[in-house]
Amino acid sequence: DGGITQSPKYLFRKEGQNVTLSCEQNLNHDAMYWYRQDPGQGLRLIYYSQIVNDFQKGDIAEGYSVSREKKESFPLTVTSAQKNPTAFYLCASRRSGLADTGELFFGEGSRLTVL
Amino acid sequence: AQSVTQPDIHITVSEGASLELRCNYSYGATPYLFWYVQSPGQGLQLLLKYFSGDTLVQGIKGFEAEFKRSQSSFNLRKPSVHWSDAAEYFCAVDGNAGNMLTFGGGTRLMVKP
After folding, report:
1. Are the Cβ atoms of A40 and B44 closer than 8 angstroms?
2. Low-confidence residues of chain A: pLDDT under 50
3. How far is CA B74 from its chain centroid?
């Protein structure tokens, strides 16, 4: 079955460490997104990519970095510069062009806790 | 800039009762509107969406939503709630024709037996 796979599901990090969250999709979607979810704040966009080797900052990109070397993969690195990284992170993808229905397809999320 | 407000952070209803979750948006033109549902510790699933045309849209799991331009609202409704509907619900707006969805803060629904 096609879908989006995020790993790891749970991750613990010490302060000062960088961590990378994996996001892989086999839906053949061009666009991919990273959202951060905190209680009561909904989802906030970190980065998005509409095509391989290109990505744009979202609303809260500071302290995060991404790459898009392959269509299927869009990893997110949470750097030590992120002041409050403890959160639930969601990866999503979306069709592009004429096939776009507006729907985002989500992974099951990764919960990062900084100790 | 587009924005979405969900005024109710928590709602509790009895099983079998009707449900209405409120959503108000801010955008200059008619946006694309969505409702998503999230079970604890999971990703989001699309319930329904409005692009144009009939202002009453039907979705999965017996949900429907009505777009009211005059009130800038897109409220979600269900005539009879089931215990399995307990989850968090997010309204979202896309005013940029494809680039960025803006989400509301979410409404957590609890269902009493």
Report:
1. no
2. none
3. 7
Helix (H, G, I), strand (E, B) or coil at A84: coil
Of A40, A45, A103, Cβ closest to residue B100:
A45
- pLDDT tens across B99-112, in order? 678 899 999 999 99
For residue B105, give the chain A residue with the closest CA. Answer: A42
Section B47-65 average pLDDT: 93
Interface contact flag, A102 B44, Cβ < 8 Å: no
C-alpha count within 13 angstroms, C-beta hemisphere, residue A94: 22
* CA angle (A56, A112, A16) in 5-degree steps: 85
CA gap B101, B44 in Å, rounded: 13
Q: What is the DSSP string of A25-55?
A: E-S--SEEEEEEE-TTS-EEEEEEEEETTEE
Bridge partners for A6 per DSSP: A23
